[in-house]
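User: I'm curious what two different proteins look like when written out as structure tokens. Can you demonstrate?

Assistant: Sure. I'll show them one after the other, since each token string lines up with its own sequence. Here's the first protein:
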Amino acid sequence: MTRVETTLLQGSPRAGSRTAGIAVRLVEELSLALAAEGVELAGPDVVDLADIGAGLPLRASRSVPLGPETERALELVRRPGLLVVVSPTFKGTYTGLLKLFLDMLPLDGLAGCVAVGAMTAGWAKHRGAGDQYLRPLLTELGAVAPVPCLSILEEEFEDVPEVVAAWSRRWAPALGAVARHLRHHDLSAPEVHPLTGARAS
């Protein structure tokens, strides 16, 4: 069984939103589906931008210190493993708060991450917003995003358990294959001497 660290990045500016609830459900269903593919998800560690979002607009000025909460959030998002990014649709795309946060990363800031995107939306015409906007942003930052984004319309909220479970089962084989490959070829992991157990410097 391949064990993979998991981070859930919630992009809604409102604490306790329905989108945040769907995000948690998605990680739960992915954990079940990936277990059948030989991948165990650790965690998840949750980065909720509703908790740290008030200070993010100040980061338009690089002279403003990040603060410990934001620094910890960036560390969690950047670590190798599975990164699940969930956002409501605001004016046809992901939230500005999510954009502000991800703008703090360097161009290759998500290298080593397998990214899964999900977006909720009110209109059917926004069904493709995740693949049109969120997924390219994650790959631009260096993540591997091997499967289409999950999209859930408000009219489907009553059916969230079934929708999320079906999506997770469909894409778990592809996600599992990529997660195992990256985990076993993680060149950033320190080498351990087979006899002494010492780590290479």
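Here's a second, unrelated protein for contrast:
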Amino acid sequence: MRHRPPAAGPPGLKLTRAGVVYIALTLLLGFAAVNTGNNLIYLLVSALLGFMVVSGILGRENLRHLHLDLLLPDEIYDGIPTLVTLQLTNGRRRTPSFLLRVLIFDQAPLFVAIPRGETATTTVEVTFRGRGARPLEGLRLSSIFPINFFRRSVPLAKVPTVTVFPAPRPCPDRTAGGGVPRPGARPLFRPGLDGELARISDYSGAEPMKSIHWKLSARHDQLKVKKEDATEASPLLVDPDGLPGAGLEERLGCAAFLINRSCRAGRPVGLKLGGRIFEPSTGRPHKLRLLKELAGHGLD
């Protein structure tokens, strides 16, 4: 998932400790120049003020024409650390950019220098709290260039939105062992020849001889055959309302775990949620669709 919000908006300005000392020294010399009338001190104060103005202009230009690409994974889970790739591009034609930081949550990776027209890349680990669709608020570009007197920052013009899935919580699918499935995750029977035993039925003549249950047939007047599920695993329909858990969040986490596990195993999985049924299927797009439905469930 890629987002490209350009830097824009009103800049922020924060005085650093070195800046406080510099301004205090300039004011002190200014008062001394007024009281003494010493031309040399006037020249020194003028030089200090001019240097401050020049540093302000350079610092402002340093934050212009920058573009940030956020490369986010398709799967982001509540409370689980996620790697986010930051690509910062310097769109200026003549000058490089220096000492740039991207403020994202509690992280502030540093880009020391980005030549003109080039892109610098870094990766940070962030943790999203709370499931559902949420904007990445608070993203800013910051710099102390050229002198650490002021920390300038600008917000991003377009705030990207990400969808956070429920944190998977390990739980059984309640279908193992070939018994009667309990609520929460029920398999849909698909006949096969080499899967798990599903049921016993009468021999119709269409079944192969290897399916005959000889021991059970000896106790009855007719042949009995074993009905087995397909080897590729029967489809699974996940219903969070029937899953174990103390509350909605735990049940949704259990559902996310079952969906992930089924998709890894190549098992068709569906979802029953809020009166809607999503038919079992396989593939990554189908998996992401189910997880997205879980992420937004109960938040409206």
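A detail about the second structure: The chain has three domains: 2-164, 166-188+234-300, 190-231.
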